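In response to the reviewer comment on reproducibility (Comment 2.3), we provide here a single inverse folding case reported in full, input and output, so that an independent group could reproduce the run without further information from us. The structure tokens appear first.
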């Protein structure tokens, strides 16, 4: 039967690139009634929770849209519809969660010393982040300004290890992780797990990523001593719902093929 969810999945997966898929979803949400979209997303997310392959692939688009691209007004409409209709699968992805409490930092974040004998302007630092060779990267990774971070994340010389270092900073820089969520770096498993295991990660970014975890990753999140409670609860719920795949054992062994040669999930290639 050609259901609404089947047509939705087909429309998303017909687009060849994850960025195009996110943009399509964003437009779809804005041009449809929230209650209709919410019911549809709940079906697809529910299918992904029991490892239906196409739904799992579409969930990547949904999760990355929520984490980095969705407007708060659109999410609020979906949240209300999810509450009204008791759409539990959708709620696990979009529920509003209080920001984690962190010790307040004293004063403004310090601009790192770039060795110029003076404090560089924001424009100069952005230009360095956009064009710098690797010699400047250690300094650029310490720069707290989100516009510098955004330029650095788009620099072709930036590596996955660099991004993991940014995501792992403690106390977490919310603006840095939010900038990261608007990039393709979220398609990397190491990056996603670093965000999930950092207790200061913004919940708006971290919560949608839980559903993209393998079973072993879900168990790691669920057992994380300083992982926020809502993430641990969600990880436990999903681990219980997900059936074993690819000969997975009871301790949560591998359930997905290995990442592609560039570290990106094969689902996104």
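Designed residues, in position order:
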């Amino acid at each position: 039967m050609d259901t609404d969810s089947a047509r939705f999945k087909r429309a998303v997966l017909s687009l060849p690139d994850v960025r195009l898929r996110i943009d399509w979803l964003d437009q779809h949400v804005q041009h449809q009634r929230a209650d209709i979209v919410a019911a549809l997303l709940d079906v697809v997310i529910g299918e992904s929770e029991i490892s239906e392959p196409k739904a799992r692939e579409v969930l990547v688009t949904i999760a990355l849209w929520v984490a980095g691209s969705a407007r708060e007004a659109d999410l609020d409409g979906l949240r209300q519809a999810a509450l009204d209709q008791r759409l539990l699968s959708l709620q696990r992805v979009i529920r509003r969660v209080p920001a984690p409490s962190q010790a307040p930092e004293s004063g403004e974040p310090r601009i790192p010393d770039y060795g110029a004998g003076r404090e560089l302007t924001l424009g100069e630092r952005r230009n360095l982040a956009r064009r710098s060779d690797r010699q400047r990267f250690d300094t650029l990774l310490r720069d707290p300004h989100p516009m510098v971070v955004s330029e650095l994340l788009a620099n072709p010389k930036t590596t996955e290890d660099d991004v993991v270092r940014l995501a792992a900073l403690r106390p977490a820089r919310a603006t840095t992780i939010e900038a990261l969520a608007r990039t393709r770096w979220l398609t990397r498993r190491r990056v996603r797990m670093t965000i999930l295991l950092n207790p200061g990660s913004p919940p708006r970014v971290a919560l949608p990523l839980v559903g993209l975890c393998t079973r072993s990753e879900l168990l790691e999140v669920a057992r994380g001593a300083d992982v926020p409670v809502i993430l641990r609860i969600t990880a436990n719920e999903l681990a219980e719902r997900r059936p074993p795949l690819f000969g997975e054992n009871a301790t949560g062994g591998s359930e997905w093929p290995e990442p592609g040669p560039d570290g990106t999930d094969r689902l996104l290639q």
